[in-house]
């Protein structure tokens, strides 16, 4: 049974999905203190939060059971992503659920700002009929600049086109052709774009790169009288410098739904300015959006725990349940090759290279590389290493992992080769897949062979001469070690030279058995490798039961 902790308000529709999913238990506890959240997470496989709960490094540290965080909403600034990644926790959000509501709120704020709706309504409520003081500006014919053309930015653009506005857009990832299809004039230079607009709206996540994206320097470059809208995240626009620009008369006004500190303190200078329209983070506060994000969050969490799919992840590559079913065997192969190299190699790893050939090159190789890194680091680190945090942990230790892809098929229809480079040289292995479930180790350094890639493996290098294999088998038998399979590879496939043998054993040999093998005068080295049993689930997909 998987336990999902919910610490913020979640629509009944979302709770219903979780409660009706077989194998999931819902632990609904709102209003917890940070210490109480940390303790509650010890018994949780996943947590769903909104904006109230803050998941700090202190809360996320040493949570071995926790595998997934789902933010019911777009922004993840209340989750410490580096800490979650380091702990191997997948972080996912719900980018689609509040798209329409946020886009509509942005347009509503822009229209209300342009037509002075809030101050006019307030004046009329006070009994004053004043038409002259609240002359507004129409939107038709004006130019709006949109920073960030994701789902919400594009939804705002479509609505602004309906208002007969000219649309400018800044996004480093959107193609010019795609922008043109949406009626957007695309800019790669934000400073060039902001000089040409009457309205500016921001729709980016809050990150180190976007914090104070719009500050005094850029505000000064804009046309006099421009109006600013922020329904994304507080901090993208520098609040103090925006207030100064409005007070100076250069900026015509602003409509803000989000703030650096929420609830924003009463002494925030923006709240005192008549040219500023403020709402208390209402962009996603519609009945429809609340239900949609709750449903999406519940479906994402259930999909992860039950079907091992990763949707809308912000700290790893997403993967659907169908892709996971297809990728599982490749992830397992990558993991086991990493485990083999971690045990074969006895010196510090400086870098690693993976080469994908045939079918393997058509898969999500980044995930396979992460699985390999998890295997490579697993025996060296006490930390929980998985496909979420393996890349970060390798990078922290100065290990660079590179990839090479080739669609060419050589001896096998699919093959993954892995090489680690150390202070003492390099070591490489290669593996393949037979059918859809059988993993094989087909090369160790220069030796080509065919060994099972599971369980207990006894590797010994020897001089290729008659009788060696027989004496090794006898030694194993004398010490009650059963040999399930044997593979031998010869250097340059020539008799009389150096060879490598791999024995797949049914039970682990004793120290006396290993000594007996080593005692053979033809044997030059002996090493024992321990791998997961055949068919074992991937370690990061297993979850502690309630």
UniProtKB/TrEMBL annotation:
It catalyses: (R)-2-hydroxyglutarate + NAD(+) = 2-oxoglutarate + NADH + H(+); (2R)-3-phosphoglycerate + NAD(+) = 3-phosphooxypyruvate + NADH + H(+). Residues 457-531 form the ACT domain. InterPro entries: ACT-like_dom_sf, ACT_dom, ASB_dom_sf, D-2-hydroxyacid_DH, D-isomer_2_OHA_DH_cat_dom, D-isomer_DH_CS, D-isomer_DH_CS1, D-isomer_DH_NAD-bd. Pathway: Amino-acid biosynthesis; L-serine biosynthesis; L-serine from 3-phospho-D-glycerate: step 1/3. It is an enzyme of class 1 (oxidoreductase). Keywords: Amino-acid biosynthesis, NAD, Oxidoreductase, Serine biosynthesis. It comes from the Bacteria. GO terms for biological process: L-serine biosynthetic process. Coiled coil: none annotated. The keyword Cytoplasm does not apply. GO terms for molecular function: NAD binding; phosphoglycerate dehydrogenase activity. PROSITE patterns: ACT, D_2_HYDROXYACID_DH_1, D_2_HYDROXYACID_DH_3. Its EC number is 1.1.1.95. Catalyzes the reversible oxidation of 3-phospho-D-glycerate to 3-phosphonooxypyruvate, the first step of the phosphorylated L-serine biosynthesis pathway. Also catalyzes the reversible oxidation of 2-hydroxyglutarate to 2-oxoglutarate. Belongs to the D-isomer specific 2-hydroxyacid dehydrogenase family. This is D-3-phosphoglycerate dehydrogenase. It comes from Planctopirus ephydatiae. The lineage of its organism: Bacteria, Pseudomonadati, Planctomycetota, Planctomycetia, Planctomycetales.
């Amino acid at each position: 049974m998987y336990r999902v902790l919910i610490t913020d308000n979640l629509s009944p529709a979302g709770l219903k999905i979780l409660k009706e999913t077989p194998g999931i238990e819902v632990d609904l506890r709102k209003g917890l203190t940070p210490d109480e959240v940390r303790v509650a997470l010890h018994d949780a496989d996943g947590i769903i939060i909104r904006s109230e709960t803050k998941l700090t490094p202190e809360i996320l540290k040493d949570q071995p059971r926790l595998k997934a965080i789902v933010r019911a909403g777009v922004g993840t600034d209340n989750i410490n992503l580096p800490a979650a990644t380091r702990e191997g926790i997948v972080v996912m959000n719900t980018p689609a659920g509040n798209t329409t509501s946020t886009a509509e709120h942005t347009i509503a704020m822009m229209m209300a700002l342009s037509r002075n709706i809030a101050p006019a309504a307030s004046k009329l409520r006070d009994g004053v009929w004043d038409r002259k003081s609240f002359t507004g500006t129409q939107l038709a014919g004006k130019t709006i600049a949109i920073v960030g053309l994701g789902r919400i930015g594009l939804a705002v653009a479509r609505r602004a086109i309906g208002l007969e506005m000219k649309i400018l857009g800044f996004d480093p990832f959107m193609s010019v052709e795609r922008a043109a299809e949406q009626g957007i004039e695309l800019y790669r230079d934000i400073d060039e774009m902001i000089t040409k607009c009457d309205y500016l709206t921001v729709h980016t996540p809050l990150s180190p790169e976007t914090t104070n994206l719009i500050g005094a320097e850029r505000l000064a470059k804009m046309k006099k009288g421009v109006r600013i809208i922020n329904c994304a995240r507080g901090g993208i626009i520098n609040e103090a410098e925006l207030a100064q620009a409005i007070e100076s008369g250069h900026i015509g006004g602003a409509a803000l739904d989000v703030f650096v500190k929420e609830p924003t303190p009463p002494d925030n200078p923006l709240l005192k300015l008549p040219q500023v329209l403020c709402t208390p983070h209402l962009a996603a506060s519609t009945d429809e959006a609340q239900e949609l994000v709750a449903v999406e969050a519940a479906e994402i969490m259930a999909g992860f725990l039950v079907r091992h799919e990763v949707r809308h992840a912000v700290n790893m590559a997403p993967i659907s349940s169908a892709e996971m079913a297809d990728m599982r065997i490749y992830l397992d192969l990558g993991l086991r090759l990493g485990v083999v190299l971690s045990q074969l190699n006895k010196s510090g790893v400086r870098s690693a290279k993976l080469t994908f050939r045939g079918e393997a090159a058509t898969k999500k190789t980044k995930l396979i590389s992460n699985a390999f890194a998890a295997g490579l680091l697993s025996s060296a680190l006490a930390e929980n290493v998985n496909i979420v945090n393996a890349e970060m942990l390798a990078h922290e230790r100065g290990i660079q992992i590179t990839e090479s892809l080739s669609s060419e098929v050589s001896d096998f229809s699919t093959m993954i080769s892995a090489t680690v480079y150390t202070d003492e040289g390099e070591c490489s292995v290669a593996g393949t897949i037979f059918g859809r479930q059988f993993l094989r180790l087909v090369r160790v350094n220069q030796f080509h062979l065919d060994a099972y890639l599971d369980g207990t493996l006894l590797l010994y290098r020897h001089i290729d001469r008659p009788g060696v294999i027989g004496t090794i088998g006898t030694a194993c038998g004398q010490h009650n070690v059963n040999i399930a399979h044997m593979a031998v590879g010869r250097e340059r496939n020539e008799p009389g030279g150096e060879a490598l043998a791999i024995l797949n054993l049914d039970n682990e040999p004793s120290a006396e058995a290993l000594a007996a093998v080593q005692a053979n005068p033809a044997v030059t080295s002996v090493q024992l490798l321990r791998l997961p049993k055949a068919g074992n689930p991937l370690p990061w997909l297993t979850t502690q039961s309630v």
